[in-house]
Structure formats: C-alpha cells, structure tokens
Amino acid sequence: MKILVATEKPFAKVAVDGIRKEIEGAGYELALLEKYTDKAQLLDAVKDANALIIRSDVIDNEVLDAAKELKIVVRAGAGYDNVDLEAATAHGVCVMNTPGQNSNAVAELAFGMMIMAVRNFYDGKSGTELKGKKLGIHAYGNVGRNVARIAKGIGMEIYAYDAYCPKEVMEGDGIVPVDSAEALYETCNVVSLHIPATAETKNSINYDLVNRMPKNGLLVNTARKEVINEADLLRLMNDRPDLKYVTDIMPVHHAEFAEQFPGRYFSTPKKMGAQTAEANINAGIAAAKQIVGFLKDGCEKFRVNK
Ligand code: 3PG
C-alpha cells in the first residue's frame, strides 16, 4: 500500500518524520510530493497512491480520475472545502478530516494579528489594549473555543454566535451567547471569524453585517477568504475609515485593500494559521493514524462524505 503526502505547503520535517513512523510501522510505503507548483505533478503522483494526506490541496474530479487506486483522502486539518466530496463519493473514496488538531495554532495566530492591529501595526503611535474590550467569536467550534480560552487570559469580555452550538455549551465556558450574527457585530469591538466556507457562509460577511460594528471595529479572519464579500468590505472600509481588517487568507483583491487602506489592513502572504510544528505534528500524525485505522480495520471515524 502506498500512502502519498501531497502538500503544496509542506509540514515541518518533524511532522513528516512522525507520519513516516506511523505509515512504515504499519507496513506501508510513504511517498512525498511537497511544494509542488503544478497540478500535473499532483496528477502524476496520485496515479498509484492508495491513500492521500493533504492540507489545503485541491482534490477535484480530475485528481480523483487520475487516482485509480485511491481508497481514502485525509485532509490534515479542519476545513475540507478543498475536496470535492460528491466526486469522492462517486469514485468510492472515503474523505476524512482531523478536527481540533491544529486549532490552537490558528487561535494563537488570531491573537497575534489582533494585537498587531490594535497596536497600529507597530508604527510607533499609541494603540489600544485588548483587555476589557468585547470580543465576538463568530462560530464556536474547535478554534473558537481556543480563542475564548486565550481571550479569558487577556481579560476580554467574550461573546459568541454559532447557530449550531447549544447556548449551554457557551455558557458553561463562561461565554455570552448571542442570538444572531447581527447582534454579535453590533456588540463587539473585535470580531474573530471561525466559520467554514459553505454554500451558506460564502460572501456572508457583507457590508450590512460589518457596518454594525462600533467605531474602531476590528475584523480578524483566520477562517476562509470565501466567506468575505470583498466588494462590500472594500466599499465599507472606504465609507468607514475607523475600521480595520486583518486576514490570514489573502483576499482576491489584496492589491486594492493594501493600496486603499494602509495602516488598516494586513494579510499574511500565505495562510499561516496552522503552520506550527505542533499543529503539523498533531494533524499529520492523526491523519496517518486514521489512514492505518481505515485500511487495517475499516474505521470510518471522522469520515465527512457519509
Ligand atoms: C484548516 O482548515 O485546518 C486550516 O485552515 C489550516 O489549513 P492548512 O493546512 O492549509 O494550513
């Protein structure tokens, strides 16, 4: 059995070593396709792979057609919007993710970007502190919960909106649940996005919603670029010179944001949220173990294309 790790953005070496130990320990062969720049390289590498470990790498119908021996794809991470689930099901391929394994890393980066923004991107002028400010967590999943834990230490007032999470869970964590996204944005000085990219959420962060934020509002995106209505946000930031936007996922209109909003906008060059040795080890080894469990025992825990 050949297990291929196909990562355009590679794991730390220590994580690859851990993955190798799991895979070879189970008697399988490990192949690596790292930092590939062309889809043709992926199409070639998947030809004889029985299992695939990926990150944000796009697995579409063409890749699945090329991967004649493929039985399972594990997205080492949370969001699986990069995998065509319907096509995978049609090809008889099981798709899994590794929920929670990289969420602390993403949460820590959200605070790194938050502090940078409220300190005016370190331009030397007086900024503000996070302590005592109202933080809105938009979606209370694994990352949202880690964000809440860190925000408590900083001394923020914490609010959350999540249509799918029972209020009791948030209350149990000492978080104030709010009834709508609108209420969250109206209440909070800082909103941190943790929604997945789905048909329901794409373009949902729009002019009307963000415009509800109080003066000097800060929007932090470590989720997905697709959830932002970029045309709306460009217009709003022109209309509201008090607003700031920091993102770990470079917008399609990055050049316009950077040019129009110096000192109010920042994007990492490449998604960095899960790019820590710890997150790579956790998610990579979890992916390897899930593949071994699936191939040896038929374990389908964490399957997402039911
Ligand atoms: C995730 O969905 O797990 C995060 O967005 C991390 O994605 P990455 O593995 O591409 O860094």
Task: Give the secondary structure arrangement, pairings included.
Blueprint: E1 2-7, H1 13-25, E2 29-34, H2 39-45, E3 51-54, H3 61-66, E4 72-75, H4 85-90, E5 94-97, H5 103-118, E6 134-138, H6 142-154, E7 157-161, H7 167-172, E8 176-177, H8 181-187, E9 190-193, H9 207-210, E10 218-221, H10 230-239, E11 244-247, H11 254-260, E12 265-267, H12 277-297
Parallel strand pairs: 1-2, 1-3, 3-4, 4-5, 6-7, 6-9, 7-8, 9-10, 10-11, 11-12
Helix pairs in contact: 1-12, 5-6
The structure holds 3-phosphoglyceric acid (3PG).
3-phosphoglyceric acid (3PG) binds at residues 9, 55-56, 77-79, 102, 271, 273-275.
Enzyme class: oxidoreductase
EC number: 1.1.1.95
Pfam families: 2-Hacid_dh, 2-Hacid_dh_C
Task: Tell me what the structure shows.
Residues 123-250 form the D-isomer specific 2-hydroxyacid dehydrogenase NAD-binding domain. Its EC number is 1.1.1.95. Belongs to the D-isomer specific 2-hydroxyacid dehydrogenase family. Keywords: Oxidoreductase. By secondary structure, this protein is an alpha/beta fold. The chain has helices at 13-25, 39-45, 61-66, 85-90, 103-118, 142-154, 167-172, 181-187, 207-210, 230-239, 254-260, 277-297; strands spanning 2-7, 29-34, 51-54, 72-75, 94-97, 134-138, 157-161, 176-177, 190-193, 218-221, 244-247, 265-267. It folds into 2 domains: 2-101 and 275-297, Rossmann fold (3-Layer(aba) Sandwich), CATH 3.40.50; 103-267, NAD(P)-binding Rossmann-like Domain (Rossmann fold, 3-Layer(aba) Sandwich), CATH 3.40.50.720. The protein contains 12 helices and 12 strands. The strands form 2 sheets. Strands 8-7-6-9-10-11-12 form a 7-stranded parallel sheet, with helices on both faces. Strand 6 (134-138), helix 6 and strand 7 (157-161) form a beta-alpha-beta unit. Helix 1 runs parallel beside helix 12 (277-297) and helix 5 packs across helix 6 (142-154). The protein starts with a strand and ends in a 9-residue tail after the last helix. The protein binds 3-phosphoglyceric acid (3PG). The site of 3-phosphoglyceric acid (3PG) has 11 residues, from loops.
